[in-house]
Write a sequence for this structure.
């Protein structure tokens, strides 16, 4: 487990060092390329504002009214039994459907429970390790006009389930409760 | 589907507040929720700008192309119906590499290109081919090296160690990737037996 923490710590700085070294070696105008690429980042950040505002307002209403607590009290015994915090259950449901909606839920969980809490970490890993299968399928198949998706949806959703379980197991082993 | 979930969350919440007498809390939640969302996005700018900038350097230095060639022999095995030097292969690989580095926006156009080529290989039919299903399984379950946005959100909320989830994320995605490939192979062979 210590090795994983070490990888977490070293991964980003070493990758940055390597990219800069390699770019300089290949005579890429590093600073200018960086600025050019960075401009895209601003666009992306602004374009997700409406997604997040919509989702966070909806979730906030749901939670502040006491509805979330009410519905969670039904799910809790089942999820407790298999060791899943019931707080992350809605995230698992919305993750394959919309990435930005899930991002809203993840931020909500992190702000409510704290980034370094068990739930905060679990939500982080779930958000980072699974994908918006339904969205990808809709966009990719839709773009080229495929009407019959075959087993694609089944395969994608089952893979998401594997990722979700793996996230819970890994986070429980590493950070415990 | 997201439309129904989104609307239902708010509607159920408002009805619930009416019964529960929590309308005051709901009122506050509407505006604090909206404000929080914008704060998060502003916080995301720093990491997104930095990361996409770094990736531009990697791309122009030919690093992404190099990685593509490195993975080619392994990935080719999963697509027996795609000829080795077919353009579809190139698009599939570049899409995967973009996904691994958390470049979702760069990955999408490449993925659509790959799908176009795969459709051509399948005689232009409007049903999903084996290769398409494998490609999407790989695409949605593939390994993530740097979960950029998640790190940014953790920083926003003053995590003591925003990157300590990188290792666990890589491990979880390795499992989901292997799982995705195995599940895809299972359905692939099932279809093959049926003829």
């Amino acid at each position: 487990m210590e090795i994983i923490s070490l990888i977490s710590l070293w991964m980003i700085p070493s990758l940055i060092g390597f990219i800069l070294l390699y770019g300089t070696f290949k005579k890429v105008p590093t600073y200018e390329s960086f600025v050019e690429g960075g401009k895209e980042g601003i666009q992306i950040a602004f374009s997700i504002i409406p997604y997040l505002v919509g989702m966070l307002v909806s979730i906030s209403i749901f939670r502040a009214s006491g509805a979330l607590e009410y519905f969670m009290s039904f799910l809790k015994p089942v999820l407790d039994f298999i060791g899943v915090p019931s707080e992350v259950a809605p995230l698992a449901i919305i993750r394959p459907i919309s990435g930005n909606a899930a991002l809203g839920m993840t931020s909500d969980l992190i702000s409510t429970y704290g980034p370094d809490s068990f739930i905060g970490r679990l939500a982080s890993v779930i958000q980072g390790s699974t994908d918006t299968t339904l969205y990808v399928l809709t966009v990719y198949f839709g773009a080229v006009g495929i009407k019959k998706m075959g087993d694609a949806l089944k395969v994608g959703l089952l893979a998401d389930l594997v990722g979700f379980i793996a996230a819970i197991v890994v986070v429980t082993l590493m950070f415990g409760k | 589907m997201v439309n129904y979930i989104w609307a239902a969350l708010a509607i159920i919440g408002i009805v619930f507040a009416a019964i529960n007498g929590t309308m005051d809390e709901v009122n506050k939640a509407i505006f604090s929720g909206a404000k929080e969302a914008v704060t998060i996005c502003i916080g995301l700018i720093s990491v997104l700008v930095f990361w996409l900038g770094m990736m531009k350097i990697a791309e122009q230095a030919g690093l992404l192309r190099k990685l593509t060639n490195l993975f080619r022999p392994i990935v080719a095995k999963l697509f027996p119906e795609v000829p080795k030097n077919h353009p579809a292969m190139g698009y599939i690989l570049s899409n995967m590499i973009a996904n691994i580095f958390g470049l979702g926006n760069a990955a999408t156009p490449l993925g659509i290109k790959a799908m176009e080529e795969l459709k051509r290989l399948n005689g232009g039919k409007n049903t999903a081919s084996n290769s398409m299903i494998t490609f999407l399984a790989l695409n949605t379950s593939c390994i993530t090296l740097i979960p950029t946005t998640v790190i940014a959100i953790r920083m926003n909320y003053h995590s003591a160690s925003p990157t300590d989830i990188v290792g666990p994320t890589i491990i979880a995605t390795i499992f989901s990737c292997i799982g995705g490939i195995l599940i895809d192979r299972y359905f692939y062979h099932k279809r093959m037996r049926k003829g």
Remarks:
- Chain A touches chain B through 104 residues (CB under 8 Å).
